[in-house]
Design a protein that fits this description.
Helix content: 25-40%
Low-confidence stretches: 5-20, 276-281, 322-364, 366-380
Oligomer: single chain
Number of helices: 20
Strand order of the largest sheet: 16-15-17-14-18-19
Number of strands: 19
Largest sheet: 6 strands, mixed
């Protein structure tokens, strides 16, 4: 007993000692340089000594670790409660129905000041300045309700704070600027003279305005709202970068300049830098890890576009509410999840709605007993999905696909060194590697620039074809880039459709990717007879419209668009029936853009688009009138699956 009491007192004393020391002092006592300790504490929002330690160890190879902090700060007012739920619902629906626009790089908020800088040692005082400013506002007469008004123009949709609500936020902005200067020696540009608003949409395509306005007008701005004031920071080193979320881990090969991809990490990518390099190897870009600060090349297919605010740090939260609202249940948000994940606990309100509905439409005890009896009746096993089949008289369509998962991106360029011996024998060290490979002229090194797809890739394509078959989609012609990954994808889609034996694949060089991305010029493709021997039904009579001499190494982006457009235009004139085309990530844009009457996309946005195209992604063109086509929503569902990294069983031996 005495021992337990002594242990309790010892632990209590240790806790008290820890509380009396700041995280900075503890890290300093642990031997960390003061500059690194302070930088880690600020970068992690002073979340504790352990988190700061983890940050320092993760950034040990960061070239900027010992440099002065470059963080920028901003103050937001974020609506929570029922209004917050409604806004999050709008965020979700607008993303699904109208695609990503500028607003999806953040979450619903009112901006109370411009971005500003603060010395690391003054950040705790800056956080206290937020509290003091909020407390000063709380002592004022607040409006019973923060009223919002809908507003839109040709390129903007939003909600504006009305006079009383805006007046409170203006004062808060001014008070924060005063407190920041007095206590944290930091100059802040208050937004006390600007129109305060919640942006709902901007930087969207003109034809999406009506959809966005309709969705926005459905937001019930009369719903109860509570406002949370939040102080965020970001690393200004990565301003203007595109933020990507890691989907699949990847071990780095340092001598090849590769970057390690870690689950939970984000990658910052400078579009202009990668545009200049123009992808020295297909699908590999240069980026910097948010988690480690290290840079290198990485396969963009292992990532997906993320929200910029996912990588921000929160330093202070203060709920701005009056006594009347204190009685209402408070909902909190996860500050670092971004805009297209949902921050409010909407389940709370959905549950309440269901309870009210069941109470008002209550059933009798007899009906409940009857349902209980029926619940015991045997039912068919499983539930088959309901599908809307394509009618026989549907307009003509063109289905354009990107190839499936590549071996070289999944396993790295070094896969050849691991899978082939000096005699050219193939060894399969991972069950996602191809079960077999086609025999081709030349050494195994020919697979380096003409890679096959993985077993998962074949399954991706098969599932896609299967989904098309369930909808009674019939294609009359199939065209593929001569690259092995595209031909294999086309074959697997046809297998899913059940027509792989009756429908031959036409190999067309015009469908090959942008030559600027083909390092060293055209690769040595697998010849037709070798593909047939391998079991792929390719046409021996079709002759490619383009010849090798037509594709120049220095091909410009606009020329890539033009050759693709000319090929599809002639193809539509010379054939009847629906067409299936399998190419590359860029094919979805270059084949569909000009046929709709648009100009070729400039190189910078085109390259940015290509990075967001996943494996087996597709677009569908539908004929509207003679020689006119438009993009429609694909009739089959999309394909999504989770990452599955390598498992090291030897961890259990440690």
């Amino acid at each position: 007993m005495a021992h337990n009491e002594a242990l309790f007192l010892q632990q209590n004393a240790a806790d008290t000692l820890m509380r009396n020391y700041s995280s900075r002092q503890v890290l300093s006592n642990m031997g960390f340089p003061d500059g690194r300790a302070l930088k880690a504490i600020v970068a992690t929002g002073d979340s504790g000594v352990q988190v700061a330690c983890d940050w320092i160890f993760a950034h040990v190879n960061d070239p900027h670790l010992n440099e002065k902090s470059t963080r920028e700060y901003i103050l937001y007012a974020c609506p929570t409660g029922p209004l917050g739920v409604a806004l999050d619902t709008f965020w979700q629906q607008s993303l699904i129905n109208s695609g990503r626009n500028g607003v999806h790089n953040s979450f619903p908020h009112v901006t109370l000041c411009s971005f500003f800088k603060c010395e690391d040692e003054n950040v705790p005082k800056l956080a206290r300045a937020v509290s003091k400013a909020c407390e000063r506002v709380m002592n004022l007469n607040q409006p019973k309700k923060f009223e919002l008004d809908y507003f839109s123009t040709n390129n903007y949709v939003g909600l504006f704070l009305q006079d009383e609500a805006a007046s409170v936020m203006w004062k808060l902005s001014d008070y924060f600027a005063e407190e920041a200067l007095a206590n944290a020696k930091t100059t802040v540009e208050a937004h006390s003279n600007k129109q305060l608003h919640i942006t709902l949409a901007y930087k969207f395509l003109p034809d999406q305005l009506t959809k966005l306005e309709t969705l926005a007008r459905k937001i019930d701005v009369t719903k109860t709202s509570m406002w949370e004031i939040r102080l965020y920071s970001r690393d200004s080193l990565f301003n203007g970068c595109e933020t990507l979320r890691v989907l699949y881990p990847l071990n780095a090969t340092i001598h090849e300049g590769q970057m390690q991809l870690i689950n939970g990490d984000y990658v910052f990518m400078k579009p202009e830098e990668n545009m200049e390099e123009a992808k020295a190897a297909d699908g590999w870009y240069k980026g910097t890890s948010w988690m480690t600060g290290c840079s290198g090349r990485f396969p963009v297919s292992h990532t997906e576009i993320a929200v910029d605010t996912d990588t921000w740090t929160i330093h202070k939260k203060f709920m701005l509410t009056d006594n009347a609202h204190n009685a209402a249940p408070k909902l909190t948000r996860k500050y670092s999840r971004g805009a297209d994940e949902f921050h409010c606990s909407s389940q709370t309100f959905q549950t309440m709605d269901k309870v009210e509905e069941s109470t008002s439409n209550g059933k009798s005890q007899e009906e409940s007993d009857e349902q209980a009896v029926y619940a015991q009746v045997a039912k068919p096993r499983g539930i088959r999905a309901i599908v809307q089949k394509v009618t026989a008289n549907s307009p003509r369509r063109v289905y354009i696909f990107r190839h499936a998962e590549r071996v070289d991106v999944t396993f790295g360029k070094q896969w050849l060194n691991h899978c082939f011996d000096t005699k050219g024998n193939y060894f399969r060290h991972n069950i996602n590697l191809p079960f077999r490979l086609p025999k081709r002229a030349g050494s195994p090194q020919t697979f380096l620039y003409d890679t096959p797809i993985t077993e998962m890739g074949m399954h991706q394509a098969f599932l896609t074809g299967q989904a098309m078959k369930q909808l009674d989609i019939n294609v009359s012609h199939v065209y593929s880039s001569p690259s092995l990954r595209s031909v294999q994808t086309a074959n697997s889609i046809l297998t899913g459709l059940g027509v792989e034996k009756s429908l031959a694949i036409n190999l067309e060089l015009d469908l090959f990717e942008w030559m600027k991305w083909s390092h060293g010029g055209l690769p040595q493709f697998v010849d037709k007879q070798s593909l047939i021997n391998f079991g792929i039904n390719v046409s021996t009579t079709y002759e490619s419209k383009a010849k090798a001499k037509d594709l120049k190494k220095d091909e410009r982006c606009e020329h890539y668009f033009q050759r693709s457009y000319q090929f599809l235009s002639k193809l539509l004139e010379q054939t009847l029936g629906d067409i299936l085309i399998v190419g590359h990530a860029g094919s979805l844009d270059v084949l569909s853009r000009q046929i709709q009457g648009f100009n070729p996309r400039p190189m910078s946005p085109f390259v940015s688009f290509v990075t967001k195209v996943p494996y087996c992604a597709s677009v569908v063109l539908e004929e509207t009138s003679a020689k006119k086509y438009k993009l429609i929503k694909p009739p089959y569902p999309t394909l999504t699956h989770s990452p599955n990294p390598v498992f090291d069983w030897q961890q259990l031996l440690k």
